[in-house]
């Protein structure tokens, strides 16, 4: 047992047993079958479940290390991008050092795809992939936990109830992240806040920065600790959000009833929807390493927000939604192609937005549009 065995990703010695458990789980096989063959697997599961298990067993045969597994995962990710992304672009990596470990803190829109796209960008550009922070609320099934930890995910214990337990878990997590960067020279990915920014308003929770600082030695000044953590803000922008309608429904329920009751394993369903849904154009923007003389968590959060908003690539979907909510605006920020937004040039995108909006109840449509319009609000605010 090591200090971080309860939260760390699996190591190479644990890969083969974990793969065996995953392949023996009929629920996982059924889920993969439905993802790969959504209609046929429902109609003839007795055919497609054994087929999926055979294919997975063949592909994973002999895999005994995390790197080998991630090489296979990268092929699946490439295939998903070919099917579900029209254009994937990356900026900012030319300013980073491949031999330096970084703590990437990004905005958070999609449970699985945010860190997956960051990993894709890093891998394609010769950087090491990241260890991914994932809340234990998502690990509702044993096979999900195995899959996540096989893919270099570490666990954020959100299920703690008492203040003492929460503090202990936060300090343990902080120590693991600090250890990963300084001692093991591993890249880390965490979201700027707990949970996705379902309303499209990206904002760093200062509690995340305070958590990171729990492992700061008393003799180390706060600014020095932040600098040695090599924090890099990351801004991820999607033209279309596969979970937009579901997010609007949840936000509407909170607004009208003060709460939203999730269905069992709803987060797992969101993961699947985010993976297979059409995303249009996607941009991953890596910011500058935080090296200022920050005095507190609030100043760090403000700088992360500034970089995320400044580098967020606005798509026609963002501009069109903003215009629908606010009317014509003369000074909208430039589009993803760095040109001034001219509404009449985006008839196709306008039609796509209308089709998505038509599938949303009338009472939720302003909230739905806000999901896309709010990045423009953040740009204007910045």
Give, in order, the helices and strands: HHHHHEEHEHEHEHHEHHEHHHH
Assign the structural class, choosing from mainly alpha, mainly beta, alpha/beta, alpha+beta, or little secondary structure. Answer: alpha/beta
Tell me roughly what share of residues is in helical segments: 40-55%
Oligomeric state of shown chains: single chain
Rg to the nearest angstrom?
Answer: 21 Å
Rounded average pLDDT: 91
Notes on the structure:
- With 382 residues, the chain is α/β, with parallel strands linked by helices.
- The chain has two domains: 68-310, no CATH class; 317-381, no CATH class.
- 52% of the residues lie in helices and 11% in strands.
- Strand 3 (130-135), helix 7 and strand 4 form a beta-alpha-beta unit.
- The longest helix is centred in the middle third of the chain and has 20 residues, at 163-182.
